[in-house]
Amino acid sequence: MDTIWTIEGLSGAGPKYKAVVTMIRDRIAAKALQVDDKLPPVRDLAWKLGITPGTVARAYNILTDDGTLRAEVGRGTFVAAPKMVGRPLNLIEIDPVPHNTGGDTDQVNLYSPHLPNGGQAELIRRLLIEVAENPPSGVMHYPSRRSALAARLAMVQWLQGTPIGAVEESDIVLSLGGQNAVMLMFQTVLQGRRPVIFVEALAYPGFRRAAEALRADVVPIEIDAQGIIPEALAAAAERHPEAQVLCTSPEVHSPTCGFTPMDRRAAIVAVARKYDLQILEDDCYRMGRAEGEGYRQLAPERGWYVTSLSKSITPALRIGCIVPPRGLAGALHRTSEHSFFGLATPIIDLTAKLLSHPELPAIMNASREGVERYVKVAVNSLGGFDLHWRRDVPFVWMILPQGWRASAFCQAAEKVGVQVRAAEEFAARDANAPHAIRMAINAGVSLQSFEAAMERLRDLLEHPPEQINV
Predict the structure, then answer these.
(1) In this structure, what DSSP letter does residue 27 have?
(2) In whole angstroms, what is the distance from residue 442 CA to residue 381 CA?
(3) 375 in helix, strand or coil?
């Protein structure tokens, strides 16, 4: 073993510690060093190579940190086993929400979407290994705008084709999912002691929660099948001159699956300009192509755009972004940095790799197709009722038939092993919500289990508690 360590092995220009690193790696690649072989002590190898012990120690540390070597206290330094890069991992799936992972089950949770795995799970695992082995942003520094540059550029690439106007990397502010993006927008914009935020009469509950956390008042605006009614918005703005933000989801409205057409969007922009309202567009639920121009393109001076990976790739990573109106990127960046400095650097590195990966478009397409299969099952089972759905939206909305109240139906559904959300969860606390439910697509259970759950719901719908049997 001693004969493989020669001064001639220290070839190449540059620092001597790098030459030692290269020499050890070359010896391993040539099989002169095998797994579990013990390397010479630092001082012995330094003497043989005619260099300082500190130089050898630095090389050993680098190779230990990247997993090439392993150090055992009191025993020495050894060649480590190679990593399983790109091979299947025997990992335990952990999900505290009982969505399950593709098996047959009678308990089906339809609270939040659970996307099909189109290959994103394995891709993310591979990229996590790459980041762990060689994190471009390091693991000993605070996050910064500079360290997040590659991730912002990847987000710009991911947003290509989204009609929200021109987007530069400096416009992108990364967030901890869509909810965090909403909070950042509110923190950047809201002024005064009791600001007012407008939301759709049925709306994503996170708008209200973020507003309440910032001590803002929430005022619901009447909607119809096409979204916010412009006249109702104008009347509310007259009553509440302190209103500052309008929150809306024009592409995929949660919970109703609605879509706001362009003439309605133009009317909403006109009202927002008249009453100086900022418009926050939540586009987190869209999985397919955008059908209309976003508010940031229609009203570049007041349109904010929020999206995340949760409904298109995975909610586990908590990666989202917000794109502000023209001229407000600096203020938004400061809000982010003053709030939490930025995303953790390993997540930044993962985001950059994931969103620019050539496999991602096909994976997302496979996931959309999987959602479509589950939506088709829901429509086949429940299409005889007042069901609202879209083939690439991961939830459906149902107006309950006469005889059912939403709260009673949710309780009855839970008794037969299906959990659904009542319309009340999307409405203001004192509002008169319709007797309706939202059912998210849960591809974490088998298609057979999902279909069985739909059949149990159909049986409930056909037998409301007020029905008189004679």
Answers:
(1) H
(2) 15
(3) helix
